[in-house]
Amino acid sequence: MATLIPGIGTTADTLHAELRTLIANSRQRVVEQLAQEFGRGFEAKNLRRMLQFAVAFPDTEKVAPLMRHLSWTHFLQLLPVKTDNARWFYARQSVESRWSVREPHQQIERKAFERTELATLQAHTPVPAESVVAADIGPAQVFKDPYFLDFLGLRQGHDEGDLEAGILQQLEAFILELGRGFAFVERQKRMVIDGDDFYLDLLFFHRRLHRLVAIELKLGRFKAAHKGLMDLYLKWLDKHERQPGEEAPIGLILCA
Questions:
Q1: pLDDT (tens digit per residue) in 42-64
Q2: Structure pTM?
Q3: 98 Cβ contact list (under 8 Å, min separation 6)
């Protein structure tokens, strides 16, 4: 049976209040000392962010190259990312793609790492996590699955023509969703194969892959016939459009 002793609870509350005041005063003195020695920017809020940064990026040798390319605001966007692999992915992409300070947050919201990871797992190629600037880049590091085309604002019941028209009207946003390095070449690329006319929906060129990228837009689920038709297009492009020094064309089928 517990016995209540008058005054004990009040004394404990007073001690806790005094302790909180002491800690707050100590923090303020630390802030003032840092400000005197190093200048402004050492408020309590910033100190907490610095501690978070030290925990998120503990290896100074790996962080040093990043600091030559990214601002403090870039790093703040990366602090909430939960895993090391994802954090380094967004850091590397920020450097390679020269993202603005707002772009990392947008890419995190759109789950760029998870989509790239899924695509590379399907290609049996791991997502590079720690290199700041990749020396070599392959299709698995370029393409994502899925792509988010909600910015097109298409209504229910749209067809492939509506999808293509929407992409061309929002071409800049579409290229940003595809990723850095894509350059638009042609719409409805005409190909004559065995005397018949075929039309590729969209043709791009990727500067870092050094190859043409054929894009077909399909409604509904993926079908084996889609791949067969894409293979036909790629053979034609390889024979008639591929320039000296370029890699073989590659295809991307977007099923909405």
A1: 677 777 888 888 888 888 888 88
A2: 0.48
A3: 180
